[in-house]
Specification:
21 strands; mainly beta; 463 residues
Amino acid sequence: MRKMLFFFIFSITVCGFSQNKQVLYNFTAIPQSLMTNPGSDVAYKWYFGVPLLSGISAHISSSGFSAYDLFANNGVDFNDKLRQVLLSTSSNDRVAINEQLEVFSGGFRVGTEDDKAHVSFGMYQEFDMLSYVPKDIALLAIDGNKDYLGKSFNLGDLNAKADLLSVFHIGYTKNVRPNLILGARAKIYSSIFNATSTNNSGYIYTIPSNSNVYDQVIYSNLQLHTSGITKYDNEGDNTDIAKDIRKKALLGGNLGLGFDFGFTYYPQKNLQITASAVDIGFIKHSKEVETFRYKGFYQFKGVLPNFNGVNQPNDAFQEFKDAIPLDTLYNKYTTWRPAKFNTSIQYSFEEEKSEGCNCQDFNAERIYKSAVGAQLFVMTTSRTPLVALTTYYRRKVFNSLEIKATYTLDSYSLANLGLGLSSKFGPVNFYVLADNLLEYKDVSKANSLSFQLGFNIIFREEE
């Protein structure tokens, strides 16, 4: 267990802090915008990211409650605060954590000025966790069923998934016409560890049948898939965990394949339409796989059992274990990456004449100082999709500084204001992006926070 504990602590500390990068999307002054749309309209001769510093991003969010609701120092007992949170949330509320660290990245232009294309490539590490609130299960654990006679507790409320993986990718962006850019990206996923418990079902209910006699029924079909972590639960294993994680990150883990697609289209020079589909892919888990399953049906009639194994009449606890046993399986399984879909429309204005500007060029950031737009984001989950709508304003303040301000509506907040800054001094590009800025005055009450920053070396086409 010591190694298991170290492994999960490592995973959490790497994360620090759902994956909507609305400030970055279509902010083409930043090369990492290609990761949200491989068909972005970029104008780089070549670029490379500063290793381990070119893309650092983190996102944490929870719908229905905040950290303050659970951990406020207000004299209220924690169990009472937890109970209040559970009563105020639904099983569709969720907690999400996403972290990405770009290990290396780069790109360069190919072809001629009249028939140009761009190649981009890189590797990044990602941690991704999404858990829905297991409301019924948590209420049963805290309060028991004494005050809920006749209520059916839904075991299907248990729905969670966590991944730690590395991703190798290469993309190709092509100007097929002066006003149309298409792009695609291929990805190889190498899963370091995975824990998935999503397709659960079952129920528990208790009803009084006669005086002091109860009828309790339990049906369970619960399972937890894991990969990449079985050896760490073996006390006799002497594996160097850090070395093992590096090996799995470098294509030694459970492998998968994914694709991104996107385009940018200009109906006219100052009007732009974009769309992208990101992480359309899967991972096949066949190494170090282990599945824990509770499946069965149990019915008990009599005084309420407490299933603690102590002084149970007629050995009810053993009967329960026999009826709903814990099975350990070693079958292969497949997980799908959370697919992200983006689309946007942008209107640009304040045309400027800059040195090196090609009059046939449709790149809005080279022709216009300002733009306004709207973006729609959708991400798949094991239940309902996550949806967000963003409006934004982009402004070129100087040749060396661009800003993007956003306002986003989603299930976490109705007042999500974001800001992005991208600077370029010589070939050095530094950017920083953040959202939910109003919540930084007291982050414990925030339902969603995210940031991203990085350094790149960029040479544009006119340089």
